[in-house]
Backbone:
């Protein structure tokens, strides 16, 4: 499915100042980037702009600062240093975003040079899409490039704002993300198997609904499975559950039956009497979970069932773990499903968030067809929603 917005290829950037919104919201430990996936993802667009004679001004958020000024824990300096390390480019960094210092640094920037501004969220107004914020940012440049897919679903100052004042186009990452995630639903190679996990039905209701319409098989794991068990009349003990969503879960099971989408729920579960590293796992069938136990992972019979379904797929979309994968003894189900996807010949799309963390934990990233950099954005696209950041760009 062709991308419907203009990209950096469609606009002359030579000698122009380009303001580029990237997603450098990277994990840090002791001031060092511990996962550089998002920095790497921005490099193709940065390289293209540099090679074509643009002066490049990069901006991003990182973490959740209070929005009342500089906070050392959330500075973008480590991300700027990581970009320099990965590319070999001279990357300038300035501890300012909206002030005179930033404006002067942008004005002085020469073609081929790269400048990283400080965290856009050090100002609370950024998240409110304050037009004054957008106007200030736009004043730094001639062209705006959005390449931060992970924030494209947010109508915030640095994401959609500059597009109101200067020509706005997409970077290569944004183009690829939207193309990949829309085409998988428009024309998937079949059988199309969707694997959805995570804790809550309520947070993925739109995704599940959309997948029932398009997938041949929908595999459900993680904490959300227990609300589906309640809809089937099972007792789930102390497992995570959403009583307000039981009726809705039952409606989805009925809808899937009517649509001819096979829903696979766990048939057995690894349970424990408490949540923790020291918890001891015991396997119970799904209709026999004791009142004093909670589900922590899919069981061995379920793991085999799910892996068999994945092995027969031509296309797999995966979002959300099968259990508490952060604790090693409850990560077996998630790891087995991840390995089944990696070892198959299917087109595999990993839909951001915890799924990416799991893939990285098991060292399987290079075996997946596409790993999305955006959790919330990828889910909204899967739901069929328009992304504000994309909508603000120039039409192709």
Residues:
């Amino acid at each position: 499915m062709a991308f419907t917005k203009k990209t950096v290829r469609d606009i002359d950037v030579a000698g122009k100042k380009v303001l580029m919104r990237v997603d450098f919201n990277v994990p840090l430990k002791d001031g060092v980037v511990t996962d550089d996936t998002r920095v790497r993802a921005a490099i193709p667009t940065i390289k293209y702009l540099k090679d074509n004679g643009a002066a490049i001004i990069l901006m991003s958020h990182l973490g959740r600062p209070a929005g009342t000024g500089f906070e050392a824990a959330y500075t973008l300096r480590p991300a700027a240093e990581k970009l320099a390390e990965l590319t070999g480019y001279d990357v300038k960094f300035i501890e300012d975003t909206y002030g005179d210092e930033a404006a002067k640094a942008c004005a002085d920037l020469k073609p081929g040079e790269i400048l990283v501004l400080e965290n856009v969220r050090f100002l609370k107004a950024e998240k409110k899409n304050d037009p004054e914020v957008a106007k200030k940012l736009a004043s730094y440049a001639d062209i705006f490039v959005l390449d931060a897919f992970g924030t494209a679903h947010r109508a915030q100052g640095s994401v959609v704002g500059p597009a109101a004042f200067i020509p706005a186009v997409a970077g290569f990452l944004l183009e690829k993300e939207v193309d990949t995630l829309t085409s998988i639903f428009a024309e998937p190679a079949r059988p199309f198997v969707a694997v959805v996990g995570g804790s809550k039905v309520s947070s993925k209701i739109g995704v599940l609904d959309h997948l029932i319409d398009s997938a041949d098989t929908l595999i459900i794991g993680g904490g959300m499975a227990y609300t589906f068990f309640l809809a089937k009349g099972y007792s789930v003990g102390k497992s995570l559950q959403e009583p307000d969503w039981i009726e809705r879960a039952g409606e989805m099971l009925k809808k899937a039956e009517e649509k001819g989408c096979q829903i696979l729920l766990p048939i057995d579960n690894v349970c424990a009497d408490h949540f923790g590293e020291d918890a001891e796992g015991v396997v119970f069938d799904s209709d026999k979970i004791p009142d004093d136990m909670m589900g922590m992972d899919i069981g061995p019979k379920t793991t085999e069932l799910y892996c068999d379904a994945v092995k027969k797929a031509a296309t797999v979309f995966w979002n959300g773990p099968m259990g508490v994968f952060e604790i090693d003894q409850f990560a077996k189900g998630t790891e087995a499903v991840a390995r089944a996807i990696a070892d198959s010949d299917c087109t595999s799309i990993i839909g951001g968030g915890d799924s990416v963390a799991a893939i990285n934990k098991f060292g399987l990233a290079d075996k997946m067809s596409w790993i999305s950099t955006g959790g919330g954005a990828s889910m909204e696209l899967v739901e069929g929603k328009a992304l504000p950041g994309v909508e603000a760009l120039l039409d192709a």
